[in-house]
Amino acid sequence: MPRIYLSPPHMGNMERELLLEAFDSNWIAPLGPHVDAFEREFCKTIGVSHSVALSSGTAALHLAMILLGVSAGDEVLVSSFTFVSTVNAVTYVGATPVLIDSDDISWNMDPMLLKEELEDCARRGKLPKAVIVVDLYGQCADYDSINAICDHFKVPIVEDAAETLGATYKGRPAGSFGKMGVFSFNGNKIITTSGGGMLVSEDGALIDRARHLATQARDPAPHYQHSEIGFNYRMSNLLAAVGRGQLRALDQRVARRREIFEFYRSALGNIPGIYFIPDAPYGNSNRWLTCITVDPDEFGASREDIRLALEAENIESRPVWKPMHLQPVFSRCRVRGGEVSAEIFEKGLCLPSGTDLKEADLIRIVEIVRGCKLKNYSP
Fold it and tell me: Quick count: other Cβ atoms within 10 Å of Cβ 243?
């Protein structure tokens, strides 16, 4: 049987047409008309005024730290439950990550733990330079609470919306909260440019500065002149063409991911010991990945039993993110809480969620999951 991947790219004819148009125009190097158009169209999609297309979401996070003046000796509060690039970006500028645990309502940063940490920082006389809030697995964090807390302490927010394009918080698009928003177009995301990212903000001066730094910080001169260190972080015209085609299909991709989630929930949601990522009451998830937790005592098999059973049938699934406070490279970082995301990691599994999955594929996956219970169940 052909392998079923966790979240593969889903391409259509529009992407091919725009890519060939870019190819035929000979705009092959970074920058070009498709990059400009992708930035404009992306801003319109998420309701933010300014954006810069970049080589990755990680590049966008790195630039966000630079733009906020984060440097050696500073601290940045970061969601512990995330992919490593979020926290890596803090270290790129020499700063120290401080890790904040999740709540069990959304799996995102716990506002109360954030408040406790900021209060302690204020008492010590050293507030963090920024807070990076991650919107996890397609669902926004609680921004009314988080923004109010950060506004009180006058600490800027960077929203890592790498996983939430197409999601909303109280009707407002993900990525439009905080001082800056970050998106990823990696191959496994809900839309992809193969590799790529976007930095967005209502502050046009910030985005202009990011664009300058991302283009090797070249001064306005007829020759190549540089007065500061820059980076090679711009997106290519070819990849932007693909992104424009993908963006036009975003609504359909989100709708399909939601259908897949509901299929799984209908088929597995009543089985004792299987629980789905909670629905936060304040927004709509894009359901980037369908995530479950498995209680082995109730279900009769573990998360790992299910993963291995699927892998034996050439089906990719994956444990949820291992929290950063449990990662060897960040084990010495200060952490606020930690128990919630640690338990989710121990029991959590991401099921195949690609928008090109057929009903027969979904039925097969569900049968394998159910079969794990039958094989291991002891009445």
Answer: 28
Rounded to whole angstroms, the Cα distance separating 98 from 95 reads 10
Half-sphere exposure of residue 306, counting CA atoms within 13 Å on the CB side?
29
User: Do residues 243 and 187 touch, judged by C-beta distance below 8 A?
Assistant: no
What would the pLDDT profile of 241-300 be if each residue is shown by its tens digit? 999 999 999 999 999 999 999 999 999 999 999 999 999 999 999 999 999 999 999 999
Position 149: which residue type?
Answer: I
The Cα 289–Cα 346 span in angstroms is 17
- Alpha-carbon distance of 285 to 174, in angstroms, equals 9
Domains along the chain with CATH numbers: 13-249 (3.40.640.10), 251-376 (3.90.1150.10)
To which H or E segment does residue 181 belong?
A: strand 180-184
Distance separating alpha carbons of residues 140 and 288, to the nearest angstrom: 12
Instruction: Tokens for 126, please give them.
Output: 């050293």
Query: What's the CA dihedral at 144, 146, 149, 154 to 10 degrees?
Result: -110
